[in-house]
């Protein structure tokens, strides 16, 4: 049923709401989508987080000519040509033997259909680009990929019924954004010191010494404080809404309007702690 009504036109209010979500960062679009379709799509949250989200950020970085992750500010949309590149990279990722776990049956509905570049571009223009703005948002990709369960009109009905973001969810999300800020500062300094350390003379020796002490530097301390604050905020939100910590859904079980947000924040926090938490 969702597939049949995928191209159903949105009324003015729904279109305005849809466009407002598409203006948010890729990750926030994913959360809106998962909040709306957690019972049906929650089982695919890990694929969306680990594979699709990482790939669309990579495509956006490629388009913007950014090579270092800490210099990247998360975007919200891709031009159609870069949207084509995103799909190409997604398919290439899944073709690599080292990523074969993502081609298993449990992720079947997340795997993109293999198309020629010409057909893919036509599909992007005629089907994926819901609001016909010549761009591809993460939300549009998700709605099209999971059209067996989702469509733009139904998404708007579900998402608009959820109301505004709850203060505890917002607090946790902003705390994680503060961690992102601290990570960028830490990684920028690390890159600067590594560049200096690659040279010669006193300056290089000083940079090497500072690199060795970076994990106990004020930057590292501020990053650790931000992680602790974010962990506390995410824990409070998780307890309040009883969200699924380790992923799940997809079984038709009763769900709340914040299950996707709670799962995403926990997963994001887990990744940040793994990379930057105190060992």
Q: Helices and strands: which structural class? A: mainly alpha
Shape: globular
Count helical runs.
11
Beta-strand content bin? under 5%
Helix amount, in percent?
55-70%
Mean pLDDT figure: 91
SSE string, helix = H, strand = E?
HHHEHHEHHHHHH
Largest sheet: 2 strands, antiparallel
Low-confidence stretches: 1-5, 245-253
- What separation lies between the terminal Cα atoms? 50 Å
Radius of gyration: 20 Å
Strands, count: 2
List its salient traits.
279 residues, mainly alpha, two-stranded antiparallel ribbon, 11 helices, 64% helix, 2% strand, disordered N terminus
Describe the structure.
The chain is mainly alpha-helical. It is 64% helix and 2% strand. It has helices at 12-22, 26-41, 45-64, 80-95, 117-128, 138-145, 152-161, 167-197, 201-212, 218-241, 259-276; strands at 77-79, 135-137. It has a two-stranded antiparallel sheet. Helix 8 runs antiparallel to helix 9 (201-212).
Helix and strand arrangement:
Blueprint: H1 12-22, H2 26-41, H3 45-64, E1 77-79, H4 80-95, H5 117-128, E2 135-137, H6 138-145, H7 152-161, H8 167-197, H9 201-212, H10 218-241, H11 259-276
Antiparallel strand pairs: 1-2
Can I get a quick summary?
With 279 residues, the protein is mostly helical. Helix content is 64%, strand content 2%.
């Amino acid at each position: 049923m969702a597939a049949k009504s995928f191209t159903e036109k949105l009324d003015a209010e729904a279109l305005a709401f849809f466009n407002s979500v598409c203006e948010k960062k890729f990750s926030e679009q994913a959360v809106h989508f998962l909040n709306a379709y957690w019972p049906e799509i929650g089982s695919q949250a890990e694929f969306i987080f680990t594979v699709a989200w990482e790939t669309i950020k990579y495509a956006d970085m490629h388009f913007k000519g950014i090579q270092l992750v800490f210099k990247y500010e998360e975007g919200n949309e891709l031009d159609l040509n870069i949207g084509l590149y995103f799909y190409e990279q997604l398919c290439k990722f899944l073709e690599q033997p080292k990523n074969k776990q993502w081609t298993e049956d449990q992720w079947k509905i997340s795997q993109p259909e293999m198309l020629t570049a010409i057909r893919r571009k036509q599909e992007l223009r005629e089907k994926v680009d819901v609001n016909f703005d010549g761009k591809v948002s993460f939300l549009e990709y998700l709605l099209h990929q999971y059209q067996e369960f989702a469509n733009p009109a139904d998404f708007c009905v579900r998402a608009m019924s959820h109301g505004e973001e709850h203060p505890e969810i917002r607090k946790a999300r902003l705390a994680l954004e503060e961690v992102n800020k601290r990570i960028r500062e830490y990684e920028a300094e690390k890159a600067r010191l590594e560049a200096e350390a690659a040279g010669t003379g006193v300056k290089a020796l000083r940079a090497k010494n500072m690199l060795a002490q970076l994990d106990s530097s004020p930057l590292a301390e501020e990053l650790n404080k931000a992680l602790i604050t974010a962990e506390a905020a995410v824990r409070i939100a998780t307890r309040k809404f009883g969200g699924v910590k380790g992923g799940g859904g997809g079984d038709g079980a009763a769900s709340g309007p914040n299950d996707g947000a709670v799962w995403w924040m926990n997963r994001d926090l887990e990744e940040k702690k793994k990379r930057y938490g105190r060992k």
